TrEMBL record:
Domain Major facilitator superfamily (MFS) profile, residue spans: 10-389
Family: Belongs to the major facilitator superfamily.
Molecular functions (GO terms): transmembrane transporter activity
Listed name of the protein: Major Facilitator Superfamily
Native species: Congregibacter litoralis KT71
Main location: membrane
Alphabetically ordered keywords of this record: Membrane, Transmembrane, Transmembrane helix, Transport
PROSITE patterns: MFS (PS50850)
Length: 394
C-alpha cells in the first residue's frame, strides 16, 4: 500500500470516528419520546438514561490522557470501535434497563477514547499548516453524521421502528472504522520527551478556553436535545417536523465547516474565533423567541452556519497561547468539551422538571453568552501579551 492510499485510509477512519460520536449524540432528542413510550415513562424521567452515554464519554476522555502510553493508537482504535459495535447490537437484542445503561456506558467510554485517538492521529499525520484545517473537517464529519443520523432517526421513528434502529446504522459505521484501521499503517507516536517536558502551568487563556468549551457543549446539547420536545409541547409540532428542525442545524454546521476549513487558512483562528462565539450566541436566541413553525427550520439552519466550526476554532485558538502545544493540551481542551456533554442530560432534565423545555433552551443561550465572554477575555489577554512582547525584547 503506497503512502497516499494509507493516508486516505487513516484519515477516513479518523473522520468516521467523529461520525460515530455525533451519530450517538445527535438523535437523542428524536429517540427520547419513542423510548419514553417504550418504557412507559415521562420524557424527563427517561432522559437521564443517556447520562450513561455522556458520562462514559467523559470517562473515556479522561482515560485518553493516560492509556496511549500503554498501547498504540491503532490498537486502541481497533479495540474501542469493536466494543462499540457489540454494545450497539446489544441495544436492539436486549430490553433490560441494566443492559441499556451498560451498553450506553460502554459506547460512551469507547467514543471518548476513540475521539482523542483520532485527533492525536490527525495531529501526527499532517503538518502544522494543514492541521487546523483538517481538524475543522473532522467537525464536518461530525455535522454530516448529525444530518444523516437525525434524518434517518426521524424517518425510522415515523415508521414505528424500534427506538434503537438509528443506532444500528452507527454500529455499521463503527464496523467500517475497524476495517479501515485493521488494513492501514499508523504514524509513529510523538516524542515522549515533549510530553514530559510540559510541566509548567498553562497561561490563563488556555483555561478560559477549556471552560468555554465546557459551556459550548453544555449549551449546544441543551438546545438540540430539548428543541424537539419544546416544539411538540408548546407549538404542537408533529414529531417528524420537530426532529427535522434539529437536522437543519447540522446542515448549517456542515456548510459553515466546509467554508471555515478554507477560511481559517486565510485569516487565522485568532480573528475567526470572535466571529464564532458571537454567531453561536446570537443564532441561538430566535430558537425560543420565534413561534413560527415554518420559520424555525431556517433559523436552525442559520444558527448552525453561525457557529462557524466553533469547537475546533477555539481549540486552534487556545494552542496559540503556548509556544509548543502538546497532545496533552489538545486532550485537555477536548476533555473540557466532553465534560459539558457529560452533564447535559442530568442538568437539562432537572431544569425541565423544575420549569419546562423553553427554559432549557434559554439556559443553552445563557451558556453561549458566558462562553463568548470567556473567549473575548482570553483574546484580550493574548492581545495584550502580543503588544507587550516587542517592548520586552527591546
Amino acid at each position: 500500500m503506497d503512502n497516499s492510499s494509507n493516508t486516505v485510509r487513516v484519515t477516513l477512519a479518523c473522520f468516521l470516528a467523529y461520525f460515530v460520536m455525533s451519530g450517538m449524540l445527535a438523535p437523542i432528542g428524536i429517540v427520547l419520546p419513542p423510548l419514553a413510550d417504550y418504557l412507559g415513562e415521562p420524557v424527563a424521567a427517561v432522559a437521564p438514561i443517556f447520562s450513561w452515554l455522556t458520562l462514559g464519554i467523559l470517562l473515556g476522555s479522561a482515560l485518553a490522557l493516560l492509556v496511549f502510553d500503554v498501547l498504540t493508537l491503532r490498537i486502541w482504535i481497533l479495540l474501542v470501535y469493536l466494543a462499540v459495535v457489540i454494545a450497539l447490537l446489544t441495544l436492539r437484542l436486549n430490553d433490560s434497563l441494566l443492559a441499556l445503561r451498560l451498553s450506553l456506558g460502554v459506547v460512551g467510554t469507547a467514543c471518548g477514547i476513540g475521539l482523542a485517538a483520532a485527533a492525536s492521529t490527525i495531529t501526527q499525520l499532517y503538518a502544522e499548516d494543514h492541521r487546523a484545517s483538517m481538524l475543522v473537517i473532522t467537525d464536518g464529519s461530525f455535522s454530516v453524521a448529525g444530518i444523516v443520523v437525525s434524518t434517518l432517526a426521524v424517518s425510522l421513528v415515523a415508521a414505528d421502528f424500534h427506538w434503537s434502529a438509528p443506532y444500528l446504522a452507527v454500529a455499521a459505521v463503527a464496523a467500517a472504522v475497524v476495517l479501515l484501521v485493521a488494513t492501514a499503517r499508523f504514524p509513529a507516536t510523538g516524542d515522549p520527551q515533549l510530553q514530559r517536558s510540559e510541566k509548567g502551568a498553562w497561561p490563563l487563556p488556555v483555561w478560559l478556553c477549556v471552560c468555554a468549551l465546557f459551556l459550548y457543549t453544555l449549551g449546544q446539547y441543551s438546545l438540540l436535545w430539548w428543541l424537539p420536545t419544546y416544539l411538540e409541547a408548546s407549538l404542537n409540532a408533529p414529531r417528524d417536523e420537530a426532529g427535522a428542525v434539529v437536522a437543519r442545524f447540522w446542515t448549517g454546521m456542515l456548510i459553515a465547516q466546509l467554508f471555515v476549513a478554507w477560511w481559517v487558512l486565510r485569516i487565522g483562528a485568532r480573528r475567526l474565533v470572535l466571529l464564532c462565539v458571537s454567531g453561536a450566541f446570537l443564532g441561538s436566541l430566535p430558537l425560543w423567541l420565534s413561534e413560527s413553525l415554518s420559520l424555525l427550520p431556517w433559523l436552525s439552519l442559520l444558527w448552525g452556519i453561525a457557529n462557524l466550526g466553533l469547537l475546533k476554532i477555539v481549540i486552534s485558538f487556545a494552542t496559540l497561547a503556548v509556544p509548543n502545544p502538546s497532545p496533552r493540551l489538545v486532550a485537555t481542551l477536548l476533555f473540557g468539551a466532553t465534560s459539558g456533554t457529560a452533564i447535559s442530560p442530568t442538568v437539562t432534565s432537572l431544569i425541565a422538571t423544575a420549569a419546562d423545555a423553553r427554559v432549557v433552551l434559554q439556559f443553552g443561550s445563557l451558556c453561549y453568552l458566558v462562553l463568548a465572554a470567556l473567549v473575548f477575555g482570553a483574546w484580550w489577554i493574548m492581545q495584550r501579551g502580543a503588544e507587550r512582547a516587542p517592548a520586552t525584547v527591546a
